[in-house]
Amino acid sequence: MKGEEYIGSQIRDRSWNKTRRVSGVISAGFFLVTVAVSVLTFAGSPALARTVHVPGGSATIQAGIDGTVHGDTVLVADGVYTGEGNRNLDFLGKAIVVRSENGPEVTVISAGNSGRGVNFISGEDLASRLEGFTIRYGKADNGGGIYISDSSPVIDGCVILGNRASHCGGGIYCNNSSPWIMNCTITENLAQDAVFENASGGGICGHNSSLTVKNCTISRNQTNATPHSPNPYDESVGGGIHCSGSYIDNCHIHGNTAGGTGGGITCSYSTITNCLIIGNGTNRESSAGGGVACEYTKISHSLVIENGAADGPGGGILCGDSTTIIHCVLSKNAHGYGSYGGGICAVFSASPVIKNCIIRENHGEEIATNTGEAVVSFSNIENGWPGEGNVDVDPLFRDPENGDYHLMAIYCGDPYDSPCIDAGHPDSLDSMMDCWHGLGTERADMGAYGGGNTGWPTSVMELNESHSVSPKEFGLYQNYPNPFNSQTEIGYYLARSEIVTLSIFNIRGQLVATLTDGFQEAGSHHVTWYARGLSSGIYFARLEAGGNGTTIKMILLK
Fold first, then answer.
1. Based on the structure, what is the number of domains in the chain?
2. Helix (H, G, I), strand (E, B) or coil at 471
């Protein structure tokens, strides 16, 4: 029971029994591929797709996979699965779904430090899906938990916990692949290289791969040389993620550590958007880039907060050539002793483009460059910075001490109006106008919440749907205030009239309240949740209507 409680403490509420039936259409293209695979399977096979039960129909998970054909599902009952047939699992190139019945809290693949959990090595594509497992205690040279090579599967709703690699990808390793990793918690994995001291990707490592990582929590992963190494210069990179050519969206990346560069993320030719990058760091001599180390990368609509480089530059972001940072907040990051660039450090001749950002209260220089020149505009930089539209004023965040970096607005119940409202680039417009996105007029605000972003605040709980919310689409808005004391308001929008359910769950997935359950007209709706009698903690509001569903995280503080 103690082990089960520990696993449960690592994961987010999945509302699993209510949401696992929702079909995960990743994109229009993926939907067409899935339909095409289903049609071909039906046409070429005398039987419809089957469900193979483990352990009911097959003794082990691998036996279940072995007995499937394209289009089948392996449905795995609750339990901890160990030993031969339940580790080093191989999808064998099949377009199948391997799914737990009741989610990762109660369905565990434990490799016992004798091999890894799962392999995708036979050209699997997006029709091959692994859903709802905890993968723990795997050990291998690359990819302690999951190994993906020349394949592009979907990993959905899994917990990747306590795995180890002796080179790259403590949790997940990808080589020449394009997987989708979504709605996962990847935590406490380790990549540690005892020979070359250049391990990479404590949580996820992508080599010659294009990753899509959405709606994930990536926390407390590490990459470093062996302890007490005689070499003080650790070349290990990417405590949380190491990748290139990848897309990281709506993720919470916190508490990761790299011995060398990029405590949270090391990447190139990538996009990072709608992310919380908090409390990551590097911990060896000459290490740099506490939050992110990147080149040829765009970072947008993200919070980069309280990251640190132990003995080098770039507490928040260490950037190389062609880095663009738009609509971000960087605060309380720190460079190493005697170094520079607490917020942002541009190395060598790099000249980052910084626009519509708020960069304040970092240790040391807010922005530091070497031989290049940062191009900064319409941003709020402490101690000032030359450039069009730049200011140096208190941004009046709502509650930064508790992690709320929204701008104050009187009409939202705050005591003041932030000077950063409508202060972004004149050609940048707010796509969403409410107290949690754009404020004032349509001109973009500085900071993480204005501009073209409709997906912020991040919700790492969204399941199998776009997190974009616009006034013409189905969507659930972040509650306000958040955190809250005893009551909070939750808003949502219905594109059509239909039956609606709005439910509240606690961190263990238990239903604590149903706020709406019945037919409602199309349009905007608001409901007040009175949380009397409930203890402080994290709660989740889940909106379901017409086959769609979305979830937000709320914090009750008493």
1. 2
2. coil
